[in-house]
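During the reporting period the student researcher (J.K.) took over the structure-prediction task from the postdoctoral fellow and processed the backlog of single-chain submissions. One of the processed entries is reproduced below for the supervisory committee.
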Amino acid sequence: MAVVTERKRPTQEQRADAMRARLLEATLDLIAEEGWAQTSTQKICKRAGVSRGAQTHHFPTKDSLLIAAVREIVARYQRELDTIKGDSGGPSRNLEDVFDFLWEACFEGNLLNCWMEVMVAARTDEALRPSVCETDTKAIRSMRALGDVCRTGSAKTSAADLIELTVYLLRGMVVQTGVHPDKMEKKRLFGMWKTLVFNR
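J.K. obtained the following structure tokens:
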């Protein structure tokens, strides 16, 4: 006799979490595709497949939804950073490996495109600026912390400073992609930066 297993229905909390996740994913996709200014709650709801009422239940205002998306970007980067830190308590990573990780994080997805859109918008959006400033400060601090688990061949320059400079360089390259999309040229220049840093 066949055993019939009863499928558990998602709880209300699980359904709410899934809807929030769909709204955030749709927001990130639209920011990356159309830019911050063109991303509206109407487009987000259509992309996410949820009603406007459901959206306002989870995120009462457009700003609250966009700020939640900002925090989601940083949370995703933090998860990636945590994987490269690993479980080791002492220096165990080569700094060049971290540089390569940062390159991949910047150019193999849409997250940094979203973040650059957000940072540019925050320059003139007073409601957005405090949240972006706070989350970016945390993000930079986390990236600098990678220096604690890196080996560097130079005693003159800290790994944390080199990582922070590399982040700023890559951010500039991502912004440039909007008008100069040649990724290979950027990769060549990034190779030059690594040569300068590692004195090869």
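The committee noted the following: The first helix runs from residue 12 to 34.
J.K. will present the remaining backlog at the next meeting.
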